[in-house]
Structure formats: structure tokens, C-alpha cells
Amino acid sequence: MNALLMMGCPELPVQTAAALYIANKLNREGFEVTAAGNNAAISLLLNSDPEKHYIKKAIDLDRCIANLAEKKTDFDLCFVFIHSDSGISYLATVKSLSKAKTVAVIFGKDIEPLIKESGDSYIIAAKAVHNPTPLRAKIDGVKSWAALTK
């Protein structure tokens, strides 16, 4: 199985920590993990994981969306990191282009409107900006990512 971590602007520090934490859990379950993001998001991830223990593949966000649109690639599970309306747009894009089960990873100060806009995606949400602990607790509440794909 394969999973995509889709990240927008790394404006909030918790995004990088949460992405690496989820990647670790996915790797332990045998998923092939790909990270997609803008240059800043990917740079933060790769600098935090220089030996590629967690993030084995990384791709530019726009290239990833183009590949999905052109049916060159697809995923079983897609985590969209959301802290603003642009994250909701990425979620809608993935839902329209991919067969993947979507997981909305919502964080920031004002998460309630984002939760409402996430539709039928599996939702992991916590008020978190700098400290990843509240979001990590929600992530730990999921016993198996593979179970979500069934």
C-alpha cells in the first residue's frame, strides 16, 4: 500500500513534526510513503530526516497534483495537512482526482470551520500551532492506517 502526505505552506511548525510522526507510523505498517509539498515544506522534511528513515520519496506539490490528474500515479491513503482554506482546497483536489481514502490532518488556532469543511474525510484535529503533542495524541488514537483503506 502507498500513502501520500500532502502539505502546503509550513507556516505552522507543528506540520513538519506531525508529518514525520505519521510517516513513521505508516512505515511501521508497511506503507510506501511519498511526501508532496511546496519547496519550503519539502526542505523542512528532508532536513529533519536526512537519512530518509521516514520520508523515502518527495515530490513538488504541483507536480504531484498533475500526476494525479494525468493518472500517472495514485495512492491508497492521502493525508492532507490543513491549517487554512488552501488546505481545504488541496483536500477537495485530491478527492476529485484520486481513489485514495483521505485523512484531513487539521491544526492551528481556529480548527472548527476547517473540520466542518472537510466533508467525509477521516478527521484528525487538534488546536496546535507550535506544540505537536495535542495532534500526536489524536494521531495515536488511530490503531491502524491500513484499516482505513478497507
The largest pleated sheet is described as: 6 strands, parallel
CATH superfamily: MTH777-like
Global Rg: 14 Å
Average predicted confidence as pLDDT: 95
Order of helices and strands: EHEHEHEHEHEH
CATH class type: Alpha Beta
Low-pLDDT ranges: none
What structural class do you assign from the helix and strand content? alpha/beta
Q: How much of the polypeptide forms β-strand, as a percent range?
A: 15-25%
Oligomeric state of the chains in view: single chain
The name of the CATH topology is Rossmann fold
Word description of this protein:
With 150 residues, this protein is an alpha/beta fold. It contains six helices and six strands. The chain has one domain (2-149): Rossmann fold, CATH 3.40.50. 41% of the residues lie in helices and 24% in strands. It has a six-stranded parallel β-sheet with strand order 3-2-1-4-5-6, with helices on both faces. The longest helix is centred in the N-terminal third of the chain and has 15 residues, at 14-28. The protein is globular and about 35 Å long. The N and C termini lie close together (11 Å). Pfam families: DUF1890.
